[in-house]
């Protein structure tokens, strides 16, 4: 590649590999000293971009030697060398070089030098000094018409504004910088602006937008072959905040494995992010080790603020590991005080931890003061931070015996999180977001238990249970890319499953992982409606003012890199928050300073408000039925029974023991499904044990009522048909009483359309569908090649009754990829979420179709649970694998009773009663549950 010397320095940042090659070609021609200085400087910048900092410094010293006698050239190289030394952790030497460069420079060159000095000042946390340097730099560069360096200066200023809480000013600077970079084709730095705008969104806790911008940055860096540690740090922060802890840990671990190629200053940042990720997944030992290594590096680099934050992360890890006592309390209080001095949001989380420790030690005065500090509220703080402040106030009020204030604080904290959840369009993010409010709900539930107040137990239990299922996910109707990705994924999985495992091409498995990642991330980008009801889905530019990618260029990001590119301290790096394992990033810094739309529509949002659960409406809707809501408080199950217009509370027993009985029962049903073993405890014995563990005294008070069961998420896979006390009655299982009320309000479609679907590879199910075809002669029947995803979705949309007989797969690792196998591949939850309205009644004659994964506070992610907010009033699904031939008579009888006007739960109870005594048929009938109303 041939370039003129003047083009080498901009190229070094945009395309470092090409710049190094061009510089070496130039040097091979034995150029004059000034030209050689430019070539060595460009090589140094390129090497630094690629993580080879020591080699970069050697090249830059050579460039400086060759620049002697040419003041402007010497000043420029001094600035590059100073910035690089700062990034290598040698900040004192680096600032000395930069100060000398400022003295030598004038005009536009002075602006360039000031920018590079600002970068090192930013890294050291000297934000105000850096901001002043940049103010002068932008003025000089704009006057001289230097677009590239003006863009860089604006980008850096945006990073500092973000650190100081000025999200609006930061986004404006990043936007303008991105436009300038796009106009002059700076691919690397344009990508940085996308990354930085992602962190502005993170500072506002707009996680879907943050993930979308960061995804664009990933694509941009990958397109030019650059591995950028800053992006890893920021993505880790956002993923942790979104509750995607496994993904954050994988990202951090991958970056940790590349530590030798990372600049010294960035090694500390990567270790800090990796420590936070380890803490989030409960690996306190790894978190402590990584945080200590980060602290040492920060201290060596004279990055005091970061060093204190790393110390706080170590203390959190020690607390998580079970350590308590006055020594830890003292250290946390001292560290919180130091964080207060820096004026960042980290301090609030530190005070909260100190308050907990003081309460445990009986140090009530210390606890009161620390929790008071933790509960400070300022304007414009994001909802999760506001909720944490209300938690501090709630704990303080509880310790002082101020019940009314404690409950008010719990309410206000959960209210803040309601608004936050509705900012997100994706079911997964909404579900995981509830984890922020779990402790607030638990405080109120404990209070209700102390008062033995069943009304409060029920209303507070409903306040924070299955809230993600009350509003449909947002999906843009014209998201063709999502549709294409899902179609490609089906094809890849179909080919994988049709190929014997030993001969499967590795490329197919890689394609599957790539497509699953693309689908999931596209779904996560969907936005809710934080205020006026406007909803934007994946695929829309989250900020219409954003710069377009340069023609023919990849999408890129922009952090804060001076063209000789001092890698910026980072938008996330500029500020951060302890408590999320240091992952709050810029969001916490901004906080310290300063409904679903789409097809859901306003009518869906108003259909249920979790703040206003109506117990009287519940009593009226139940009629002669009973509702049993199971609540877990401090490891103990409690039941609230609503029956005959009254509420009664019954203690049940330990949740752990109940979980053991659930797994024993499921194991036995799995064996009986295929006739593997008829020895061991009978189903009757297992059922009685299960009933005692799950319902306890409630079994004796139900009479002959039909029952609505509301179990906690961790017990959702329970085979209710095994419990003797529930025999002979209709049993509806729902994730919350509010979801049941919502399902009852649904009205069947005017058109009584029936859809029957047969997936491939089920010989027994063919007889099942044939019989149902006789019962429903006008039904739409899809089988033998016609049961493709798009055709099935089209027919399911708004159907009255749908019956799908297909192989089912539950993915515990990624529950929204749980699926039913159709003729062209798996139909996943992401496919189902494209429905405008799910079938009014849906029968899933499939293995494991009723399973879901507990996430967040008390939420479920899975195939059946995803259909609840889409308009399904009732779903029949299995919680274990079932025997295919044994289900045929069960399903035939079920539909006969549905045709006679019975509800799904009633029809299922009658069909079960006729199942007979054959052990396999009996096991099959007990393996299904009726969900909904």
Topology:
Blueprint (H helix, E strand, L loop, with lengths): L4 H10 L1 H13 L4 H17 L3 H15 L3 H17 L3 H14 L2 H17 L3 H18 L2 H17 L3 H18 L2 H17 L3 H17 L5 H13 L3 H12 L7 H17 L3 H17 L3 H17 L5 H17 L3 H16 L2 H11 L8 H17 L3 H20 L4 H7 L4 H13 L3 H10 L16 H18 L8 H19 L60 H9 L7 H7 L7 H8 L3 E8 L2 E8 L2 E9 H19 L9 H12 L12 E4 L20 E3 L3 H9 L8 E5 L4 H13 L4 E3 L6 H8 L4 E5 L2 E2 L9 E4 L2 E4 H4 L8 E5 L6 E4 L3 E4 H5 L6 E5 L5 H16 L4 H10 L5 H8 L1 E5 L1
Parallel strand pairs: 1-4, 4-5, 5-16, 6-7, 6-8, 8-12, 12-15
Antiparallel strand pairs: 1-2, 2-3, 9-10, 10-11, 13-14, 15-16
Helix pairs in contact: 1-2, 1-3, 2-3, 3-4, 3-5, 4-5, 5-6, 5-7, 6-7, 7-8, 7-9, 8-9, 9-10, 9-11, 10-11, 11-12, 11-28, 12-13, 13-14, 13-15, 14-15, 15-16, 15-17, 16-17, 17-18, 18-19, 19-20, 19-21, 20-21, 21-22, 22-23, 22-24, 24-25, 26-27, 31-32, 31-40, 34-38, 38-39
SS elements, strand count = 16
What is the topology, as strand order, of the major beta sheet?
A: 3-2-1-4-5-16-15-12-8-6-7
Low-confidence stretches: 530-610
Helix proportion = 55-70%
Number of helices: 40
Kindly, what is the distance between the CA atoms of the first and last residues, rounded to a whole number of angstroms? 69 Å
Shape: globular
Cα-atom radius of gyration: 31 Å
Reported by name, the CATH topology of the domain at 742-932 is Rossmann fold
Structural class, judged by helices and strands? alpha/beta
Tell me the β content. 5-15%
State the name of the first-level CATH class of the domain at 742-932: Alpha Beta
- Largest sheet, strands/sense/barrel: 11 strands, mixed
Second rung of CATH, namely the architecture of the domain at 742-932: 3-Layer(aba) Sandwich
Mean pLDDT: 85
Biased composition (Gly residues): 573-584
Biased composition (Basic and acidic residues): 507-519
InterPro entries: CHAT_dom, TPR-like_helical_dom_sf, TPR_rpt
Protein name: CHAT domain-containing protein
């Amino acid at each position: 590649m041939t370039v003129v010397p003047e083009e080498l320095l901009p190229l070094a940042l945009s395309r470092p590999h090409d710049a190094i090659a061009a510089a070496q070609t130039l040097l091979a021609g034995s150029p004059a000293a000034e030209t050689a200085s430019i070539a060595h400087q460009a090589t140094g910048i390129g090497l630094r971009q690629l993580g080879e900092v020591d080699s970069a410094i050697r090249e830059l010293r050579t460039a400086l030697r060759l620049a002697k006698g040419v003041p402007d050239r010497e000043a420029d190289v001094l600035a590059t060398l100073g910035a690089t030394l700062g990034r290598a952790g040698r900040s004192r030497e680096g600032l000395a070089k930069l100060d000398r460069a400022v003295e030598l420079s004038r005009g536009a060159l002075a602006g360039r030098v000031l920018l590079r000095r600002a970068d090192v000042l930013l890294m050291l946390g000297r934000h105000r000094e850096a901001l002043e340097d940049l103010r002068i730099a932008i003025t000089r560069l704009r006057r001289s018409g230097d677009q590239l360096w003006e863009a860089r200066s604006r980008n850096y200023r945006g990073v500092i504004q973000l650190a100081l809480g000025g999200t609006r000013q930061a986004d404006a600077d990043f936007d303008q910088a991105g436009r300038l970079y796009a106009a002059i084709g700076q691919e690397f730095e344009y990508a940085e602006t996308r990354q930085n705008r992602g962190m502005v969104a993170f500072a506002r806790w707009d996680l879907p937008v943050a993930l979308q911008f960061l995804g664009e940055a990933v694509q941009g860096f990958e397109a030019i072959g650059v591995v950028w540690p800053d992006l890893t740090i920021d993505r880790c922060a956002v993923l942790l905040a979104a509750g995607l802890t496994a993904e954050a840990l994988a990202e951090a671990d991958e970056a940790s494995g590349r530590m030798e190629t990372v600049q010294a200053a960035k090694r500390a940042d990567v270790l800090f992010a990796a420590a936070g990720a380890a803490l989030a997944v409960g690996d306190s030992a790894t978190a402590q080790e990584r945080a200590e290594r980060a602290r040492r590096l920060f201290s060596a680099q004279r990055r005091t603020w970061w060093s204190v934050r790393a110390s706080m992360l170590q203390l959190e890890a020690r607390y998580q590991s079970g350590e308590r006592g006055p020594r830890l309390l003292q250290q946390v209080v001292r560290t919180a005080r130091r964080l207060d001095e820096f004026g960042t949001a980290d301090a609030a989380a530190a005070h909260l931890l100190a308050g907990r420790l003081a309460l445990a030690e009986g140090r009530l005065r210390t606890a009161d003061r620390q929790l008071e500090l933790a509960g400070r509220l300022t304007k414009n703080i994001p909802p999760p931070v506001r909720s944490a402040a209300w938690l501090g106030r709630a704990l303080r009020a509880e310790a002082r015996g101020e019940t009314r204030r404690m409950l008010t604080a719990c309410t206000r904290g959960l209210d803040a999180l309601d608004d936050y959840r509705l900012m997100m369009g994706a079911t997964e993010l909404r579900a995981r977001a509830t984890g922020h409010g779990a402790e607030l709900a638990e405080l109120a539930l404990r209070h209700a238990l102390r008062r033995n107040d069943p009304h409060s137990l029920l209303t507070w239990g409903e306040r924070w249970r299955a809230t993600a299922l009350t509003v449909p996910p947002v999906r843009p109707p014209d998201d063709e890319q999502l549709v294409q990705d899902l179609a490609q994924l089906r094809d890849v999985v179909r080919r994988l499953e049709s190929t014997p495992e030993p001969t499967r091409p590795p490329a197919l498995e890689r394609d599957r992982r790539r497509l699953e990642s693309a689908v999931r991330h596209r779904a996560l980008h969907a936005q809710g409606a934080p205020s006026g009801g406007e909803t934007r889905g994946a695929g829309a530019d989250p900020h219409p003012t954003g710069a377009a990618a340069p023609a023919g260029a990849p999408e890129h990001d922009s952090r804060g890199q001076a063209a000789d590119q001092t890698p910026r301290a980072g938008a996330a790096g500029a500020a951060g928050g302890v408590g999320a394992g240091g992952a709050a990033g810029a969001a916490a810094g901004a906080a310290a300073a300063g409904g679903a739309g789409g097809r859901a529509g306003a009518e869906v949002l108003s259909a249920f408000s979790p703040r206003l659960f109506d117990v009287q409406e519940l009593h009226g809707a139940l009629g002669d039925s009973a509702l049993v809501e199971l609540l877990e408080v401090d490891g103990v199950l409690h039941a609230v029974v609503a029956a005959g217009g009254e509420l009664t509370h019954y203690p049940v027993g330990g949740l752990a023991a109940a979980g053991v009985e659930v797994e024993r029962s499921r194991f036995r049903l799995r064996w009986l499904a295929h006739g593997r073993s008829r020895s061991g405890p009978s189903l009757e014995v297992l059922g009685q044990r299960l009933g005692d563990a799950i319902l306890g005294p409630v079994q004796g008070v139900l009479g002959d009522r039909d029952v609505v069961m509301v179990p906690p998420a961790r017990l959702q896979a329970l085979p209710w048909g095994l419990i003797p006390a529930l025999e002979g009655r209709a049993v509806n299982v729902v994730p919350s009483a509010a979801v049941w009320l919502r399902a009852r309000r649904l009205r069947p479609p005017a058109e009584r359309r029936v859809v029957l679907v047969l997936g491939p590879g089920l010989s027994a199910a063919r007889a099942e569908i044939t019989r149902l075809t006789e019962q429903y002669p006008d039904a739409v029947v899809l089988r033998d090649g016609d049961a493709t995803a798009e055709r099935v979705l089209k027919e399911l949309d708004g159907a009255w009754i749908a019956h799908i007989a297909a192989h089912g797969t539950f993915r515990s690792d990624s529950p929204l990829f749980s699926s039913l196998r159709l003729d062209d591949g798996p139909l996943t939850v992401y496919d189902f979420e494209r429905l405008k309205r799910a079938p009014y009644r849906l029968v899933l004659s499939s293995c494991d179709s009723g399973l879901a994964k507990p996430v967040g506070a008390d939420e479920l992610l899975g195939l059946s649970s995803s259909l609840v907010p889409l308009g399904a009033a009732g779903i029949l699904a299995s919680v274990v694998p079932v025997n295919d031939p044994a289900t045929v008579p069960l399903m035939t009888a079920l539909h006969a009773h549905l045709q006679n006007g019975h509800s799904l739960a009633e029809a299922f109870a009658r069909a079960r009663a006729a199942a007979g005594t054959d052990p396999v048929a009996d096991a099959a009938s007990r393996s299904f549950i009726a969900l909904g109303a």
